[in-house]
Amino acid sequence: MELTTEQISRYDRDGYVVFPELFSTQEVAILSGEVDRVSKIDSECIFREVENGPAKTIFRMHESDGATASPAFHAACRTPRVLGAARQVLGDNALYMHHSKVNVKSAIQGSAWPWHQDFGAWNLDGIAAPNLTTMVVLLDDATEFNGCLYLLPGSHREGRHDPYFDESTAYKLWAVGPSRMRDMIARYPDPVPLTGKAGTAAIFHCNNLHASGHNLSAQDRCQVYFCFNTVANRPADVENPRPDYVRSQNWRPMQLGDDDGVLNSASVPA
Ligand code: SIN
Ligand code: MN
After folding, report:
1. Does the residue 13 lie in any domain?
2. Which entry of 20, 41, 116, 264 is 20 to 30 Å from 50 by CA?
3. Residues by chain with Cβ below 5 Å of ion ligand 2
């Protein structure tokens, strides 16, 4: 997939571009089956809101080694649709994955993510420049009712805001404070809900402000985030670095795979 000039200028202007149904129903079924399989594993790469409860976040499904490795996710993030698009928006062919995560926001119980910029935390990982981008792929239909992601169009253009460590939800993260958010929302177009059919995807800039609400519905809302950095922008050493599953040190440039990679992975034993 080659992004058009119009899509590239939309990415520059809004900080994101949406691709309706980028992955087929069959590919989504394979990826979702892998989430079910891996979520039963006991691993430090899996975060659960409640001990022994359902997985809320699964890291590192994109690698070929480790407890959470999945051939289908390994293939998905290397497709021209995903890696090719990331290369294009970052203007660099030498990319690696800072991390990948699958967020399973479970029916009724799945909780919110406060407003934040991904570069809020990634800068603290030792990454100097905001040259990262994320491709999110919906693995369930996403609605406003089931806690879809909201993006604040154009918000990446003001750069990084100093974050605070938000501990109000089970998944603690570096977030942007309420007074700054009130000001940003007042000055920008309304936040855009990333809703759509499973398989829909969006690529967004690491300084784009985003958040999501509680899942009030009876349906799970699962989505995967592939977070790409340029090899040239890999992190400098920091004191107490986060674990490798969230601050990867696999800085080898990723190789472009096949667009049929997810479908073909189904015949490879996991
Ligand atoms: C995130 O921005 O890190 C996750 C938000 C979500 O999955 O709703
Ligand atoms: Mn985020």
Report:
1. no
2. 116
3. 118
DSSP 126-143: T--S--EEEEEEESS-B-
Q: 96, exposed or middle or buried, with CB in 10 Å at 0-12, 13-18, 19+?
A: middle
pLDDT < 50 positions in the chain = 270
Instruction: Note whether residue 137 is domain-resident.
Output: yes
pLDDT digits (tens, 9 = 90+) for 102-133: 999 999 988 899 999 999 999 999 999 999 99
* Domain containing residue 240: 20-255
pLDDT tens per residue across span 49-92 = 788 888 999 999 999 999 999 999 999 999 999 999 999 999 99
Return d(Cα 160, Cα 123) in angstroms, integer: 9
The full DSSP string for 55-94 is EEEEE--SSSSSTT--HHHHHHTTSIIIIIHHHHHHT-S-
- Rounded to the nearest whole angstrom, what is the distance from the C-alpha of residue 149 to the centroid of ligand 2? 9
Q: Is residue 11 part of a domain?
A: no
CA of 210 to the centre of ligand 2 (A): 6
| Closest ligand, as measured to the CA of 118 | 2
Which residue in this structure is represented by tokens 């590192």?
A: 60
Judge whether 65 lies within some domain: yes
C-beta separation of 120 from 160 below 8 A: yes
Is residue 212 lining ligand 1, measured as CB closer than 6 Å?
Answer: yes
Number of domains in the chain: 1
